[in-house]
Protein backbone atom coordinates (compact mmCIF):
# COMPACT_ATOMS: atom_id res chain seq x y z
CA UNK A 1 0.00 0.00 0.00
CA UNK A 2 2.79 2.46 -0.86
CA UNK A 3 0.37 4.95 -2.43
CA UNK A 4 -1.17 5.56 1.00
CA UNK A 5 2.05 5.53 2.99
CA UNK A 6 3.48 8.78 4.29
CA UNK A 7 5.65 9.35 7.38
CA UNK A 8 2.51 10.38 9.29
CA UNK A 9 0.42 7.34 8.27
CA UNK A 10 -0.52 5.10 11.17
CA UNK A 11 -1.92 1.60 11.12
CA UNK A 12 -5.32 2.83 12.28
CA UNK A 13 -5.59 4.84 9.01
CA UNK A 14 -6.18 1.58 7.09
CA UNK A 15 -9.19 -0.70 7.04
CA UNK A 16 -9.04 -4.20 8.59
CA UNK A 17 -8.39 -5.98 5.27
CA UNK A 18 -5.48 -3.67 4.46
CA UNK A 19 -4.07 -4.02 7.98
CA UNK A 20 -4.17 -7.83 7.82
CA UNK A 21 -2.49 -7.84 4.40
CA UNK A 22 0.26 -5.46 5.49
CA UNK A 23 0.96 -7.19 8.79
CA UNK A 24 1.06 -10.54 7.05
CA UNK A 25 3.72 -9.32 4.64
CA UNK A 26 6.15 -7.89 7.22
CA UNK A 27 8.45 -9.42 9.79
CA UNK A 28 7.21 -7.76 12.95
CA UNK A 29 9.74 -7.02 15.69
CA UNK A 30 8.84 -5.47 19.03
CA UNK A 31 11.59 -4.03 21.24
CA UNK A 32 10.53 -3.89 24.89
CA UNK A 33 12.04 -2.38 28.00
CA UNK A 34 10.99 -2.51 31.62
CA UNK A 35 8.52 0.37 32.08
CA UNK A 36 10.25 1.51 35.25
CA UNK A 37 13.59 1.71 33.43
CA UNK A 38 11.86 3.76 30.72
CA UNK A 39 10.48 6.05 33.43
CA UNK A 40 13.91 6.53 35.02
CA UNK A 41 15.50 7.15 31.62
CA UNK A 42 12.88 9.79 30.79
CA UNK A 43 13.40 11.47 34.16
CA UNK A 44 17.17 11.52 33.63
CA UNK A 45 16.73 13.14 30.21
CA UNK A 46 14.21 15.72 31.48
CA UNK A 47 15.70 16.47 34.91
CA UNK A 48 15.16 20.22 34.51
CA UNK A 49 11.37 19.96 34.41
CA UNK A 50 10.91 18.21 37.79
CA UNK A 51 12.70 18.83 41.03
CA UNK A 52 12.68 15.21 42.16
CA UNK A 53 11.90 11.76 40.85
CA UNK A 54 8.91 11.63 43.18
CA UNK A 55 7.39 14.82 41.71
CA UNK A 56 8.12 13.58 38.18
CA UNK A 57 6.31 10.30 38.94
CA UNK A 58 3.40 12.26 40.39
CA UNK A 59 3.21 14.30 37.16
CA UNK A 60 3.15 11.04 35.17
CA UNK A 61 0.44 9.58 37.40
CA UNK A 62 -1.62 12.77 37.21
CA UNK A 63 -1.44 12.87 33.41
CA UNK A 64 -2.25 9.15 33.02
CA UNK A 65 -3.15 8.30 29.45
CA UNK A 66 -4.55 11.70 28.50
CA UNK A 67 -1.32 13.55 27.75
CA UNK A 68 1.03 10.65 28.29
CA UNK A 69 4.36 10.89 26.55
CA UNK A 70 5.41 7.98 24.36
CA UNK A 71 8.48 7.83 26.63
CA UNK A 72 6.43 6.56 29.59
CA UNK A 73 3.12 5.44 28.10
CA UNK A 74 2.47 1.72 28.68
CA UNK A 75 3.90 -0.40 25.85
CA UNK A 76 0.74 -2.44 25.51
CA UNK A 77 -1.18 0.70 24.55
CA UNK A 78 1.51 1.71 22.03
CA UNK A 79 2.27 -1.62 20.35
CA UNK A 80 -0.94 -3.63 20.76
CA UNK A 81 0.79 -7.02 21.35
CA UNK A 82 -2.58 -8.67 21.91
CA UNK A 83 -3.75 -7.64 18.44
CA UNK A 84 -0.53 -7.75 16.42
CA UNK A 85 1.18 -11.12 16.26
CA UNK A 86 4.85 -10.11 16.48
CA UNK A 87 7.43 -12.46 14.99
CA UNK A 88 10.08 -11.40 17.51
CA UNK A 89 10.01 -9.69 20.88
CA UNK A 90 13.46 -8.37 21.77
CA UNK A 91 13.96 -7.41 25.40
CA UNK A 92 16.37 -4.76 26.59
CA UNK A 93 19.11 -6.54 28.48
CA UNK A 94 19.36 -9.34 25.92
CA UNK A 95 19.96 -7.29 22.78
CA UNK A 96 23.31 -8.79 21.84
CA UNK A 97 22.01 -12.38 21.89
CA UNK A 98 18.60 -11.66 20.38
CA UNK A 99 19.74 -9.28 17.64
CA UNK A 100 22.36 -11.75 16.43
CA UNK A 101 19.67 -14.41 16.14
CA UNK A 102 17.28 -11.99 14.42
CA UNK A 103 19.91 -10.87 11.88
CA UNK A 104 20.82 -14.49 11.07
CA UNK A 105 17.12 -15.35 10.58
CA UNK A 106 16.76 -12.36 8.24
CA UNK A 107 19.76 -13.58 6.22
CA UNK A 108 21.85 -10.53 7.07
CA UNK A 109 25.57 -10.62 7.91
CA UNK A 110 25.78 -10.50 11.69
CA UNK A 111 29.41 -9.42 12.02
CA UNK A 112 29.17 -6.29 9.91
CA UNK A 113 25.84 -5.04 11.27
CA UNK A 114 25.91 -6.01 14.92
CA UNK A 115 27.89 -3.62 17.05
CA UNK A 116 29.03 -4.52 20.54
CA UNK A 117 26.14 -4.01 22.94
CA UNK A 118 26.70 -3.37 26.60
CA UNK A 119 23.08 -3.62 27.69
CA UNK A 120 23.93 -6.14 30.43
CA UNK A 121 26.02 -3.51 32.24
CA UNK A 122 23.33 -0.90 31.60
CA UNK A 123 20.79 -3.28 33.14
CA UNK A 124 22.90 -3.49 36.31
CA UNK A 125 23.09 0.31 36.44
CA UNK A 126 19.31 0.60 36.13
CA UNK A 127 18.89 -1.93 38.88
CA UNK A 128 20.99 0.25 41.19
CA UNK A 129 19.24 3.44 40.02
CA UNK A 130 15.83 1.83 40.55
CA UNK A 131 16.66 1.07 44.17
CA UNK A 132 17.81 4.63 44.77
CA UNK A 133 15.05 6.44 42.93
CA UNK A 134 12.11 4.27 43.91
CA UNK A 135 13.09 4.63 47.57
CA UNK A 136 11.92 8.27 47.19
CA UNK A 137 8.40 7.17 46.31
CA UNK A 138 5.55 6.66 48.72
CA UNK A 139 3.87 3.27 48.93
CA UNK A 140 0.80 4.83 47.27
CA UNK A 141 2.90 6.09 44.32
CA UNK A 142 4.47 2.63 43.90
CA UNK A 143 1.04 1.02 43.91
CA UNK A 144 -0.29 3.56 41.41
CA UNK A 145 2.69 2.96 39.10
CA UNK A 146 2.17 -0.80 39.30
CA UNK A 147 -1.47 -0.24 38.37
CA UNK A 148 -0.54 2.20 35.56
CA UNK A 149 1.83 -0.39 34.03
CA UNK A 150 -0.20 -3.48 34.99
CA UNK A 151 -0.76 -4.67 31.41
CA UNK A 152 2.92 -4.27 30.48
CA UNK A 153 3.91 -6.18 33.61
CA UNK A 154 1.44 -8.94 32.76
CA UNK A 155 2.40 -9.14 29.07
CA UNK A 156 6.19 -9.24 29.36
CA UNK A 157 8.55 -11.07 31.76
CA UNK A 158 10.31 -8.07 33.31
CA UNK A 159 12.47 -9.36 36.13
CA UNK A 160 14.12 -6.16 37.34
CA UNK A 161 10.94 -4.41 38.29
CA UNK A 162 10.47 -2.96 41.76
CA UNK A 163 7.16 -4.86 42.15
CA UNK A 164 8.77 -7.17 44.69
CA UNK A 165 8.41 -4.30 47.22
TrEMBL record:
KW Membrane (keyword) present: yes
- The name on file for this protein is Carbohydrate sulfotransferase
Task: Indicate where this protein resides in the cell.
Answer: Golgi apparatus membrane
Q: List GO BP terms, alphabetically.
A: carbohydrate biosynthetic process; dermatan sulfate proteoglycan metabolic process
Keyword Glycoprotein set for record? yes
From which residue to which does the signal peptide run? none
* One Pfam family it belongs to: Sulfotransfer_2
Q: What class of enzyme is it?
A: transferase
Which GO MF terms are attached to this record?
Answer: sulfotransferase activity
Q: Tell me which UniProt keywords the record has, alphabetically.
A: Carbohydrate metabolism, Glycoprotein, Golgi apparatus, Membrane, Signal-anchor, Transferase, Transmembrane, Transmembrane helix
Query: Which InterPro entries is this protein grouped with?
Result: Carb_sulfotrans_8-10 (IPR018011), Sulfotransferase (IPR005331)
Give the similarity note.
Belongs to the sulfotransferase 2 family.
The domain of life is Eukaryota
How does the protein associate with the membrane?
A: Single-pass type II membrane protein
Amino acid sequence: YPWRHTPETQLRDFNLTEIEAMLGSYTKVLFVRDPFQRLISTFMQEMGSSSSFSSFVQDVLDSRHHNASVAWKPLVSLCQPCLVQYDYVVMFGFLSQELGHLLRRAGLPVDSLLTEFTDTQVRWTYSWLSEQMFSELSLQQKQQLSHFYRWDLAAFPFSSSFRSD
